[in-house]
Amino acid sequence: MSSSSARGDQWTFLTNHARVLLWLARDPEVRLRDVAAGIGITERAVQIIVADLEAAGYLTRTRVGRRNRYTIDSSVALRHPLEADHPVGDLLGAFLHREDAPDAPDTEQAEAEAALRP
């Protein structure tokens, strides 16, 4: 077995923190259990990631009835020193601005983009 086949299929470009943030940007009122199922990690892992993101200032959690609404501050800088001159909004924009339907704007996408505005 070559070393590339032993290791090469195991890594991805995005961290689970990025995946959770993207999911919350797409659907600010999503249940964390749905995020967990969609990403393929445990609900507890998602809760820890959300707490990390909230503590770092990337998002705020607001209680709306029995649910939470997540608002992302797109102006907060990325954490790694090599990317610190880029706001997280750049990363989100790379994924949220893809057009799935070129004829009509996506209402959910427009709402997610509105949630990103500081």
Note down, in words, how this protein is organized.
- By secondary structure, the protein is mainly α.
- 47% of the residues lie in helices and 10% in strands.
- It has six helices and two strands.
- The chain has helices at residues 3-7, 16-26, 32-39, 43-55, 88-96, 107-116; strands spanning 59-64, 67-72.
- A hairpin with a 2-residue loop joins strand 1 (59-64) and strand 2.
- Helix 2 (16-26) crosses helix 4 and helix 3 (32-39) crosses helix 4.
- The longest helix is centred in the middle third of the chain and has 13 residues, at 43-55.
- The radius of gyration is 16 Å and the shape is globular.
- Residues 100-105 have low confidence and may be disordered.
Features:
globular; 118 residues; Arc Repressor Mutant, subunit A; two-stranded antiparallel ribbon; 6 helices; mainly alpha
Specify the CATH homologous superfamily. Winged helix-like DNA-binding domain superfamily/Winged helix DNA-binding domain
When the domains are counted, the total is: 1
Order of helices and strands: HHHHEEHH
Radius of gyration: 16 Å
Spatial strand sequence of the major β-sheet = 1-2
Number of DSSP-assigned strands? 2
Q: Tell me about the largest β-sheet.
A: 2 strands, antiparallel
**Would you identify the regions where 5 or more consecutive residues have pLDDT less than 50?**
100-105
CATH topology value: Arc Repressor Mutant, subunit A
Contiguous helical run count: 6
The chain-level mean pLDDT equals 85
- First-residue to last-residue Cα separation: 50 Å
Q: What is the name of the CATH class?
A: Mainly Alpha
Helix/strand class? mainly alpha
CATH architecture: Orthogonal Bundle
Strand content: 5-15%
Shape field: globular
